């Protein structure tokens, strides 16, 4: 079980980000929203993942960065839920949609629920 979140797994492509937000589908589990889109032209199935915390909801940079750091860690620990039976490649964007702070365990429960919803739709 691979528990890394390396450079090749991070969502950085401007083209892919634009496609994600124009054509992407979403799955919600408060306070997380997962927007995803399939990626073509790849021979091995993999995920490109990004996290986002809107400035409009979380005003201070310190809180935004902490939430993003927690989201990346929770994803890194639980990505096996979707990668074990992955048949094609996807681009993921996790968006935090709450004004309140959330601790690691609460965020982990929401992330697991979100990943399971995605896996049910694409298994």
UniProtKB/TrEMBL annotation:
One of its GO terms (molecular function) is tRNA binding. It is an enzyme of class 3 (hydrolase). One of its GO terms (cellular component) is ribonuclease P complex. InterPro entries: Ribosomal_Su5_D2-typ_SF, Ribsml_uS5_D2-typ_fold_subgr, RNase_P, RNase_P_CS. Its EC number is 3.1.26.5. PROSITE patterns: RIBONUCLEASE_P. Keywords: Endonuclease, Hydrolase, Nuclease, RNA-binding, tRNA processing. Gene3D superfamilies: 3.30.230.10. It comes from the Bacteria. GO terms for biological process: tRNA 5'-leader removal. HAMAP family: RNase_P (MF_00227). Consists of a catalytic RNA component (M1 or rnpB) and a protein subunit. PANTHER family: RIBONUCLEASE P PROTEIN COMPONENT. NCBIfam families: rnpA. Belongs to the RnpA family. This is Ribonuclease P protein component. It comes from Christiangramia salexigens. The lineage of its organism: Bacteria, Pseudomonadati, Bacteroidota, Flavobacteriia, Flavobacteriales.
């Amino acid at each position: 079980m691979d528990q890394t979140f390396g450079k090749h797994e991070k969502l950085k492509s401007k083209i892919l980000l634009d496609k994600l937000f124009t054509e992407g589908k979403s799955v919600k589990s408060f306070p997380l929203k997962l927007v995803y889109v399939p990626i073509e032209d790849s021979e091995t199935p993999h995920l490109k993942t990004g996290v986002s915390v809107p400035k409009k909801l979380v005003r201070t940079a310190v809180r935004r960065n902490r939430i993003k750091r927690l989201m990346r860690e929770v994803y890194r620990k639980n990505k096996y839920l979707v990668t074990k039976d992955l048949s094609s490649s996807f681009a993921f964007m996790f968006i935090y949609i709450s004004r309140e702070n959330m601790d690691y365990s609460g965020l982990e429960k929401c992330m697991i629920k979100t990943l399971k919803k995605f896996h049910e739709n694409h298994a």
